[in-house]
From TrEMBL:
SMART domains: CactinC_cactus (SM01050)
InterPro entries assigned: Cactin_C (IPR019134), Cactin_central (IPR018816)
Pfam families for the chain: Cactin_mid, CactinC_cactus
Name of the protein in its database record: Splicing factor Cactin
Occurrences of domain Splicing factor cactin central (ranges): 72-258
Boundaries of every Splicing factor Cactin C-terminal domain copy: 368-505
UniProt-annotated stretches for the region Disordered: 1-63, 299-326
Basic and acidic residues bias spans: 15-37
Organism: Chaetomium thermophilum (strain DSM 1495 / CBS 144.50 / IMI 039719) (Thermochaetoides thermophila)
Annotated Low complexity bias: 304-314
């Protein structure tokens, strides 16, 4: 064996001497000659958790994103409520658009439809090319033409929009309309003594306030408030009433700015399509001076003729028929909740929203009509569309140039939340025209037969019927093509697909 390096030997011997001198009583029983390569106790060190990183450490975007994923329970609840409010507001705007297009609008719908032209939060996929052709009454005209009960309903509707809206300009729009609606309601009531006193100088107030801009009115508002808060000897009743009048003129000025922006947006859009009409609109006020005369639109809507072999000239715009309504439609909160939940589920890629509602033939007035107010159930139905690759289509089409889609099935969801007798589930029956029996066909070549499917329930719901393609149903239990007929939690669900037709080669 060779000699150990002197420096290494000195280091080892020094460690042994230090160990002999410094070892405490609790280590006396340990063997003195231990393996120097083994771990050893050092009283100066201890096992501990890693020290906390300094707070000013630079955080990466990924770390920040990870931190934001962990929200407190209150923050999660607040976020959920905000998302729910956003959805409700979006649906309210969408329904307003649809009722306008179908000429069955309520006063609030005119106000919401007008705002859509400058609303940065609107969904562009809800736009329709024909919307630009729809005349819009001026918001002030909408309020002016209503009676007390209508104004009360409008007031509640405006407050709903104002509560849900988060866009600053949109909120100012609804705030201004709320002030004008409140003022109009006051004018329809008898004036108190102090009101009559101020009305005597109304012409002077109009002369002072009418020509002023929004900026000037805001400056004057500050002056009047300062005067009311001062200790000057003033006619407090007069100045308070003047302030109320000023706030109405301020609301009108705010509304005027929004209406000007609405008109400009419509003119800009028309310039791309019809410059002459754009020029005409630009030179006008841009709004109607009264609410349009209400017209009744048919509630019939059928899948286009190229898809079903039938047509309806009065069909509402695509995607809008599910909101078709009549005067006795069920508008209960329970039905609305069921409808909103089904609407939120949307439609799949191979589905389209479907309503082909028709009058139920030969149905007498129900015997319970004197006891319960008859109403039509609300619904949200889907029609399943797809391609059929029969021998003819395989010869004339391919996947890059597919054949027209055809109806492959339906999914009906009819809402009966307020049934008087919940032990009797609603049902349905098929009605074929002209006494035609199942399997018989009266359709010309290339067309498909249709029939009525009638849904029947007890009070307070009337029967309701839809026109569908008349083909043989597939009652199998396959996952995608499975038949479903059930009544649960107030919803009658009838889902079925048609049997596939296989052609021999």
């Amino acid at each position: 064996m060779g000699h150990m390096n002197p420096e290494r030997a000195a280091m080892i011997n020094g460690w042994k001497d230090r160990d002999r001198n410094d070892r405490s009583d609790r280590h006396r029983d340990r063997p003195r000659d231990r393996d120097i390569t083994a771990p050893h106790y050092d009283s100066a060190n201890r096992i501990s958790k890693p020290s906390r990183q300094p707070q000013n450490k630079t955080t990466t975007p990924a770390a920040t994103a990870a931190a934001t994923r962990y929200l407190t329970q209150d923050e999660q609840a607040e976020q959920f409520v905000a998302e729910e409010d956003k959805f409700v507001l979006k649906q309210a705007k969408k329904k307003a658009d649809i009722r306008i297009r179908e000429k069955r609008a309520k006063p609030i719908d005119y106000l919401a439809f007008a705002l859509r032209w400058v609303d940065p939060d609107r969904d562009v996929f809800d736009d329709d090319d024909a919307d630009i052709d729809i005349p819009i009454p001026h918001p002030e005209a909408v309020i002016r033409d209503l009676n007390e009960s209508q104004l009360q309903e409008l007031d509640e509707d405006i407050r709903s929009y104002h509560t849900l809206e988060v866009n600053e300009r949109n909120r100012k729009y609804w705030t201004a309309l709320l002030a004008l609606c409140t003022d109009r309601r006051k004018k329809l009531k008898p004036l108190p003594p102090e009101g009559r006193a101020v009305s005597a100088v109304a012409p002077e107030v109009d002369r002072i306030l009418a020509p002023k801009t929004l900026t000037q009115l805001e400056a004057l508002e500050m002056q009047i408030r300062a005067k009311l808060q001062s200790n000057e000897p003033i006619d407090t009743d007069y100045w308070e009433e003047l302030l109320k009048s000023l706030l109405i003129y301020k609301a009108k000025a705010q509304l005027k700015e929004v209406c000007s922006a609405i008109k400009d947006a419509r003119v800009q859009l028309l310039r791309l399509r019809d410059p002459e009409r754009a020029k005409e609109l630009e030179g006008s006020d841009g709004f109607l001076d009264a609410i349009p005369t209400a017209g009744k639109s048919s509630s019939k809507a059928l899948v286009p003729a190229s898809k079903t072999g039938a047509s309806s000239s009065s069909a509402p715009p695509p995607g809008t028929a599910r909101f078709a309504s009549t005067g006795n439609e069920d508008f209960s909160q329970a039905s609305k909740a069921l409808l909103d939940r089904e609407v939120a589920r949307g439609v799949s890629e191979n589905e389209e929203i479907f309503t082909a509602e028709e009058a139920v033939p030969g149905i007498p007035r129900p015997i319970w009509a004197d006891k319960y107010r008859p109403r039509k159930p609300r619904y949200f139905n889907r029609v399943i569309m797809g391609y059929e690759w029969n021998k003819y289509n395989q010869t004339h089409y391919d996947h890059s140039n597919p054949p027209p889609k055809v109806v492959q099935g339906y999914r009906f969801n009819i809402f009966y939340p307020d049934l008087i007798d919940k032990t009797k589930a609603p049902t349905y029956k098929i009605i074929r025209d002209d006494g035609r029996k199942k399997g018989e066909s009266n359709a010309p070549a290339g067309k498909e037969d249709t029939c009525l499917i009638r849904f029947i329930a007890g009070p307070p719901y009337e029967d309701i019927a839809f026109r569908i393609v008349d083909r043989e149903w597939d009652y199998s239990a396959k996952k995608e093509r499975g038949f479903k007929s059930c009544f649960d939690k107030g919803i009658l669900q009838l889902h079925f697909m048609f049997k596939k037709i296989y052609y021999r080669k």
